[in-house]
Structure formats: C-alpha cells, structure tokens
Amino acid sequence: MKTYLSSLRKAVNEVLAFSYRNYAVTKNEFYAIFEMLFWPVISMLTIGLLGQFLSLSSREIAFILIGVISLSVIQIVQIDVSYVVLLDMWSLSLKYTVVTPVPLYRMVIGAWFFGIFRGLISFVILVILSQKFFGFVLEIPLNAIFIFLTGIFLCSLLIGITNCTLILVFGRRAEIFAWTLTATIMIFCGIYYPVNILPEPFKTLGLLIPITHFLEYFRTFYGFEATWQPLISGFGEVFVYLLFLLILAEVSMKRARKNGLVMKLSG
C-alpha cells in the first residue's frame, strides 16, 4: 500500500511540475498572455461582424460563434501541450528534459492541465463578449457545457501530442505544425459550416475527427441536428486516437534519443 501511494505521489508531482513549468513561462511572457486573449477576441469580433453584415439569423450566428469559440480554445490548449517540446527546442535544452526519468505522457498531461486553465479563461471571456456584442446566450445545462469542454480539451490534447511527435520525428521542420495543424483540421470538422456540405472523401474525413461530433453536440441545443450519437462517436474516437498517439509519442522519443535528433535540437 505504501509503495502504491508513493508511486502515485511521485506521478502526481511529476505531472504538476510540468504544469508549473508552463505557468512559470506564461506569467513572464507577454506573448503567451497576448495569444490567450487578443487573437481569440479578434477572431470572434470579425466573424460575428461578418455574420451581422450578411444579415444572418441569430441561430446562424450562434452556429458560427460556437465554431469560433471552440477553435480558439482548442488552439490555446494544444499549444500548451506542444510547448513540452517547443520550449526546450527553442532554448536548446531538450536533452536535459529527455534525460529526466519522467515518461512523456506525464509531461504532456501536466502541460495540458495548465492549458485547460488558460482555455477556460478564454472560453468565459469569449462567451461574455459574444453575448454582449452579438446576442449569443449560453442557455444550455452546466453538465452539457462540462461534457462539451471535456471533449474539446481532449481533442486539444490529441493535437498537442501530434505536434510533439512530429517534432521528435522531423525536427525543427515540423515546428510550423504547432500553429497550422489546428487550422488545417478546421477545414474538415465543421467550424464554420456543417460537415455534410463537404464532398467525399472529405465528409468522411470530417466524421473521423472527434471535434466534429462535439461541435454537433453543442449545436443541438440551438436547434441543429446531429449525426448518430455524437458523444459516443466523439469520445470513442478520442480514446482510440489517444492510446495510439501516446504509444507513438513514446516510440518517437526513444527513436530521437537513439538517432541523435535530441542533441541536434539542443544546439
């Protein structure tokens, strides 16, 4: 029993250490605060004003604002997960993190926890501003909001782990994916339009992205129809992808240690 509690305490401390690491960087970095507030607000205002210019109904404006808010939150949370590798690569100190006896999954989970904190702040701000400027009222049960945000945060974790893996495989050339992967996924998962308007095979591709199903779930509270059981589809895809990506990330880390990529990324 003592051994189990000791191991659990050690795991929790390792996870929290990487949460604190991201916090320490964010509190002293103006850009980290800037990206959490400025760009999400700008996106929400520009898309909302476009909707008013096109004389969209309140229901249609709600559709696109849900997408804008979700996209902003996903980008903020996933970039914190990506920082697990990016921060060390930029500071030429990746080798010091790699040699620590901490599994990669604990590193990304710790960073993800702090990303959730930042994402929640942005979500609340965007919802308040959406209501003030565009009449978007969040009139859905708290448990539904919790379920939706849980799904969105898990999707962010998937994107962040993917970015870390790409960097460990391809090096600095993959750095750009930390900012472009979310935008690329946006094309297929129905951020600004229903997935069913896409031609095949892109429609099927969109249904294989869990974000699609969580957006559909949220939009059902505003009168839009969803595909069969969006929550089952969304969480089912998330857990399958998460298991695969965690294994792939660990393999990529071991490979990067053996082929010398870690030393190259450390200067």
Describe the SSE topology.
Elements: H1 2-27, H2 30-53, H3 58-90, H4 94-98, H5 104-134, H6 142-170, H7 177-186, H8 202-207, H9 210-219, H10 230-258, H11 261-265
Helix pairs in contact: 1-5, 2-3, 2-5, 3-5, 3-6, 3-7, 5-6, 6-7, 6-9, 6-10, 9-10
Q: What is the CA-based Rg, rounded?
A: 19 Å
**Count the helices. How many?**
11
The proportion of residues forming helix, as a percent range, comes to: over 70%
The averaged pLDDT comes out at 86
- Biggest β-sheet, characterized? none
β-strand amount:
under 5%
Shape: globular
Distance between the termini: 44 Å
Number of structural domains:
1
Structural class: mainly alpha
